[in-house]
Amino acid sequence: VIYIILLIMLILTLATYDEASVTDADLIAVLFSILSLVMLGFWSKHVANRRSKTYDINNAPPHQLPTVQIADDQISDDQKHYLIIKIAQLIADLHQRGQYHGDINPNTIMMDDDSASDTDTEHTDANFLLAHLTLAEPTHFSSNKLKKSSNKDDLAVVGHPAYQAPERWQGQEATEQSDIYAFGIVLYEILTGKLPFTIAEQSGDPMLDWNNQHCLTPIPKLPPEYQPYQRVINNALAKQRKKRYQSMQEAIIDLQSIKLCQ
Fold first, then answer.
1. Which of 18, 67, 196, 226 could be stapled to 188 by a disulfide with Cβ–Cβ 3.0 to 4.6 Å?
2. How far apart are CA 243 and CA 236, in angstroms?
3. What are the angstrom distances between the C-alpha of 245 and each of 168, 183, 198, 213?
4. What is the full DSSP assignment across 21-40?
5. CB-based burial of residue 155 (10 Å sphere; 0-12 exposed, 13-18 middle, 19+ buried)?
6. N- to C-terminal Cα distance for the chain?
7. Which of these, 132, 108, 113, 133, lies nearest to 124 by C-alpha position?
8. 10 Å Cβ neighbour count for 237?
9. Tens digits of per-residue pLDDT, 121-180?
């Protein structure tokens, strides 16, 4: 803004000069203004570059952080458990601040470079954050609904359709329970490497198919090695909000009670 103001002032000053009455002082003033503009430009670029290199992990733009890699065959069950609890705590912290996210999925769960490269994550205090908070709203107010298209009967979804709760497909507002449902999808995906609900790639009506998957398809069973998590999956992915966990803290308590087989 300052740069633009100075540029406008310089243009107006030059426009008012009469060539016959220009003095040495006038020329010095014009040259000083031009030099100031050049120096301001270099300073602005320096500050921008410095900020991009020294950002704080909790305030960094999402594109500067690598997405958490989930369902990796090289990740042990202990590491998966650690990752799941960290994500649950991250969502719980957001809810405790009086907000819900509205679009939780692996692409909105971020981890810093050092933590992402540390294979022994179960003993590492990794830095996590939720990105893409454009849909986040206070829990006491929400206009974030699924809406009918104006020219079709298909649903216009807000957020990633693979992670949206049944009530969202029924046109209801997003809530903390909608985030809990999305967390259940991510939990299943971390454990098994696949989504609990999917549609055909060549679907003729993907929104309708996603609606049927989330609203009508039964909650899948986990493989035997992950049966201790089935209770959490069932309570997170319950079709009705009132049967779902009422808070992320309830999910965390159940997760912390899970004893992994060594």
1. 196
2. 9
3. 17, 11, 23, 20
4. G--HHHHHHHHHHHHHHHHH
5. buried
6. 61
7. 113
8. 26
9. 444 456 777 775 544 444 444 444 444 433 434 444 567 899 999 999 998 988 999 999
